[in-house]
Specification:
The protein has 158 residues and is mostly helical. The chain has one domain: Four Helix Bundle (Hemerythrin (Met), subunit A) (Up-down Bundle), CATH 1.20.120. α2 runs antiparallel to α3, α3 runs antiparallel to α5 and α5 packs antiparallel against α6. The radius of gyration is 22 Å and the shape is elongated. It starts with a helix and ends with a strand.
Length: 158
């Protein structure tokens, strides 16, 4: 019986260890300056807000509003000071971001020309797949410049 309990405890311990190992964040960590990180996060928040506005416009069948909300998320948005990100972020990350901006230009153009909400929803779904892929692949951390800071958390004594 003692061996059975020991085996059970050992097995449960391995199960807990493998379960916690599965929960480890395996995304690639991108370390950039705090200003660069804030720029990327602000852009993501703008994209999310724009998507919400596009969905609300689609619910009203207001394709002019879809185009109005999509256009500022296009390639014109990336022109707003992204030079400081070149070289700081991987080429694949930047290419994915540029393709998202390009998608919004296409969404705006299609909303203006075809006026087909289902087509726009399909386009938006494809674009959001890129968002999901990016968030599943990367995490962004600001570089630490002070002693006692590791992985974004400060270590201090109480």
């Amino acid at each position: 019986m003692k061996h059975l309990v020991t085996a059970l405890v050992f097995t449960l311990g391995l199960g807990a260890a493998s379960a916690s190992a599965e929960n480890i964040d395996k995304r690639q960590t991108l370390v950039i300056t705090e200003a660069q990180r804030e720029h990327v996060l602000e852009e993501m928040r703008s994209l999310l807000s724009g998507i919400q506005n596009i969905l609300a416009a689609l619910a009203r069948d207001d394709m002019a509003a879809v185009a109005q909300y999509a256009r500022p998320l296009g390639m014109g948005m990336k022109a707003k000071s992204e030079d400081h990100l070149k070289g700081a972020l991987p080429k694949e990350f930047m290419q994915l971001g540029m393709s998202v901006h390009s998608d919004f230009d296409r969404i705006a153009a299609a909303a203006e020309s075809s006026k087909d909400p289902k087509h726009t929803l399909r386009q938006l779904g494809e674009t959001m797949n890129k968002c999901v892929s990016c968030h599943a692949s990367y995490q962004i951390r600001a570089e630490s410049r002070t002693l006692g800071v590791k992985d974004g958390a400060q270590h201090h004594k109480h």
